[in-house]
Design a protein that fits this description.
The protein is an alpha+beta fold. It folds into 2 domains: 276 residues, CorA soluble domain-like (Beta Polymerase, domain 2, 2-Layer Sandwich); 62 residues, Methane Monooxygenase Hydroxylase, Chain G, domain 1, CATH 1.20.58. Helix content is 54%, strand content 14%. The chain contains 8 helices and 7 strands. The protein has a 7-stranded mixed β-sheet, sandwiched between helices. Strand 6 and strand 7 form a beta hairpin. Helix 5 runs antiparallel to helix 6. The longest helix has 67 residues. The chain is rod-shaped. The model has no long low-confidence stretch (mean pLDDT 84).
Amino acid sequence: MAARVKKRSAKAGLSPGTPVYIGEKREGAPRLTVISYGEDRFEKKTGVSLDEGLSLRHPSGVTWVNVEGIHDPGLVDEVGRRFHLHPLIIEDVVNTAERPKVEDYGDCIFFVLKVFEADGRGRGGRVQQVSLVLGPDYVLSFEEKESRIFRAVEDRVQKGQGRSRRMGADYLSYCLVDAAVDSYFGVMEDVGEEIEDVEEELVVNPSREVVAKIHALKREMIFFRRSIWPLRELINCLERLETPLIRPATDVYLRDLYDHTIQIIETIETYREVLSGMLETYLSSVSNRMNEIMKLLTIISTIFIPLTFIVGVYGMNFKFMPEVEWKYGYFIVWGVIVAAALFMVRYFRKKGWI
């Protein structure tokens, strides 16, 4: 991890607001996409320079600037200067270790989110940090790496479906946050299927490998909880903010978004309880198995105690032992041993011990 991730200590001694990229090392240049739209128009430029992209900006519409890849602090800083963003926003954008949050800077609102992409194999696939800036007529989105999280939002805006063209920048920012929240549902479905598979395996074969899977899933649940709980606070803050950047018409959508967040939190808490129960089931299974083994060994030992006594008595090398001279003494002793063993087995069966 130390070789792949630049640590927060890289910022030590620098002045506040200095953009220093903290995250996985990446190759290649970031990709810039600029979309400008209104109720009756849509323009888009992808893979262009900032100057060329911002040429689409229209005073009567909404401008959406999306940066895929924040490992170039220079580009992020340039975008910030063009939109007159506070230096602390730029510093937080290039720091992928930020906690999900929302901050009101007066002329803009800054969001930090954690976004997940399901890969069909459980455990969330890829996770990345996404930063959003909401302004009067623009939305800036900074993705840690290339993804398809916002493709559906872009398609709706391009096709003019729903309210996407008629509403302002605040509605677009809501759609982006909603897409981030929806990314959790796909991940939770994958994790739920994996939990079901582990649960079935636990019932059939409670091995150490199953316990390792349970612990791995529990760690994933802790990570999801750390990411989604602050998101609930974020949406709560958005609803309470008294700012002209968020119009009253958007409040109802924020409340619906809050409900979705609560559903995800409840799902995470349910999975955590299920995993804790599975761990307890494993421990109970191991304990019961150990009890059965100890029970079997105890029964075997109990059966052999009188047999050992008989053999021990006649194994003494005293000269004057009456039974030693018997013609059928050996067979009599074996008969007594077999009879004692059969009697004890029958007695244990009658008591239901075996």
